[in-house]
Amino acid sequence: MEDKETINILIAQLLSKDDEILRLRNLLDDLQREQQSGNMQILSKLDRALEELKSMRHDNKALSNRLSRALEAKSAAEEKIQELSSALEALENTRADELYEIARQKRQLYGRKSEKKSSLSATKQKDLKEDKDDFDGSAPSAPVEDLEQKAAESASSEAAPRSESPSCRKDYGKQSTGAENVVVHYCDESDIPSGARKIGIREWIQYSIQHQVVKHVFKLVRLVDTQGNISNYYQPTDKNDTRRPFENVLEGYPVDFELMARILVDKYQYGLSLERVVDRLKDAGARFNTSTVLAWIKRHMKELCKLEEPFRQLLLTPGSMLFSDETTEQVRVYNQQKGKYEYRKQYIWGIKNPDRKIAYYLYDNGSRSMKVAQKFFAGFRGSVTTDGYNVYKMFEREDSSITRYGCMAHVRRKFVDALQTDHRSADIINLISNLYWVEADCRINLLSEDERRMERQKRAIPILAEIWQMIQPVFEQTRGDTANLFLKAVRYAVNEWEAVSRYVQNGKAEIDNNPAERMMKPICMGRKNYLFCGSELGAKNASMLYSIIETCKMNGLRPVKYIAEILTKLTAGETNYMSLLPINNNKEY
Per the database record, which ranges form the Transposase IS66 C-terminal domain (predicted)? Predict the structure, then answer.
């Protein structure tokens, strides 16, 4: 009985297990059906994504075609712009040539403008701004009423033959222009159209210049020897290629000396800012950063500054006649009180020695104090022509080895400023113009120093005496009066009279300080264009570059070629710096 119950229990358990298995099978079937449904949805989504990809590919192809057509149109437009630019440049060159020819013909027809004596007597209400600061002695010494008679006499004497003066300029005709490199282009006469005949040859001249910076890439072969030493090897495949790597460059600076010289001349001779120099290089097909170019300048200036002491020694040659002046420059300096950098007005001295054909610019912490002058001119024996700045009065001490000459142009300038307020200035200006006519006659007749001194004593001393008789009573009578423009001019002339009139005793001396005044022009151009120097080192480097460029111009040398050649010699180990100065170089750069 018990066995039967056990069997029934077991059967019941089996039946319950069968029901569980059936339930699990139904659940598995449901899961399979859901999986198939999900797979179908995924496949449909994939199909839709594939269709979208096909559509996008078609759109991309259309966009690619449109972009290709746009690039072709852009290329055609650039070619058209290039053609128009070339045509515009040709038109501008033609216009510039025509304007130059018109200006040249006007100068030949009407002559140069100058300060005429008639303007001093006829126009008393002249604007002071229209009067030039520097007087060059071009005013006539004849009275106004005699001008028309002299003009008629000169016109009638043009037909008569005149002896050719050695100081006259020549070759102002068609051959006054030229170039060193000449390429002749011949015409092929075999293709002359039928029915035409040759009647002559006509020459048409065109000047061009290649503004292009070339990037040279050298493929160096790295070699290793049996001992493990590694070296570079380079031999050009073209036997006519003379350029070699690491030549005409400073180590670590990939710019050759000629390009570096052009950068320096553009900045310091033509007064371009560093940004404009970089823009010019960009026009020549090269892109450089201003900081990179500035680093190049600083490094190359270390080599050129080796010539500073030889420049000074040659300038201060004993017995020389110097001309000295100073001007301002904005320089970025450090203010210790405020603890920051600021721009201040600093001074640069300009000293010229025409006998030795050398110009020197001095920057000594931006000062123009007496200590700077004493330090620079220490041990010099000679003469200096200056304006009335008080520092130069130290040369007038009894124990001084330097003779100071004054500047008549500064004296005249004071009376020109007073011309509008006091008519007496016109008479003094007329007398000063007569002094300059004496100097002009000496230059035209090519007088020697002794002949020049004798001519001055004969003709200039009476004029100086007449001027002194006019200004000395005014000075004595107005000692305690408030100084107006005319009295200021009189007092300046009286205080400077001994130095100003000293030139008549020396045929080597000049009447004014204009040689030094003209030295200041490059600095004034730079002050207007690049505004300031970024540091005191920059101001010192600028002074050295001004010295080199102005000295090259005095010696008839081209600054670009000279600087490039000197950098080559300095980096090659040349230590005889005196032989590198422009005056000691016989080679024409």
Answer: 547-581
Give 253-284 pLDDT, tens digit per residue: 888 899 999 999 999 999 999 999 999 888 88
In this structure, the answer to whether residues 225 and 369 fall within a common structural domain is no
Long-range (24+ apart) CB contacts under 8 A made by 207-212 are 207/177, 207/179, 211/283, 211/284, 211/285, 212/284, 212/285
Q: Are residues 323 and 222 in the same domain?
A: no
Q: Residue 140: which of 119, 155, 158 has the closest Cα?
A: 119
Round to whole Å and give the CA distance between 128 and 285. 48
User: Per-residue pLDDT tens for 456-481?
Assistant: 999 999 999 999 999 999 999 988 88
Burial class (CB in 10 A: 0-12, 13-18, 19+), 475: middle
Identity (one letter) of the amino acid at 504? V
CA distances (Å), 553 to each of 384, 558, 560, in order? 22, 7, 11
Tell me the CB-side half-sphere exposure of residue 559, using CA atoms within 13 A: 23
The range of the structural domain enclosing residue 533 comes to 312-541
- Separation of alpha carbons 554 and 132, rounded Å: 25
Give the largest Cα separation in the chain, rounded: 174
Q: Which residues contact 428 (CB under 8 A, 6 or more apart)?
A: 415, 467, 470, 471
Q: What are phi and psi of 391, to 5 degrees?
A: -60, -35
| φ and ψ at residue 385, rounded to 5 degrees | -100, 125
Domain count, the chain: 2
